[in-house]
Amino acid sequence: MSKSKAKKKAKAPKAKGVKPAVQMKAETKLQIVIELLKRPEGATVVEIMKATEWQKHTVRGCISGALKKKHGYEIVSEKPNDGDRVYKIVISKQ
After folding, report:
1. What's the Cα-to-Cα distance from 56 to each of 8, 34, 64, rounded to whole Å?
2. Residue 51: what are its φ and ψ, rounded to 5°?
3. Is residue 45 within 8 Å of 84, Cβ to Cβ?
């Protein structure tokens, strides 16, 4: 029995002195949520939903699971009398 070997593609020659283009890492949805919550005014669930295209239950799960439990952020929420609940990340001054 003979085993077939996979053919390797020929690589293009590299130009000397030229660095490959640096690829920027795309901003994740979790990073977007963190930036929204770090703002002085915080963010509502609706604002986070619009920014990430997530549903309500996903936003709430992200706040309680990923941010509080996994990443250790301290998150506070305030419910103004005339509006939606606002969530904020507490920035501790050390």
Report:
1. 48, 16, 13
2. -75, -30
3. yes
Task: Identify the three-state secondary structure at position 88.
Answer: strand
The whole-model pTM stands at 0.69
Residues whose CB falls within 8 Å of the CB of residue 59, separated by 6 or more in sequence, listed in order:
33, 45, 48, 49, 52
Each residue of 13-43: pLDDT tens digit?
555 665 556 665 678 999 999 999 999 999 9
- Per-residue b/e over 23-56, b at no fewer than 16 CB within 10 Å? eeeeeeeeeebbebbeeeebbbbebbeeebebee
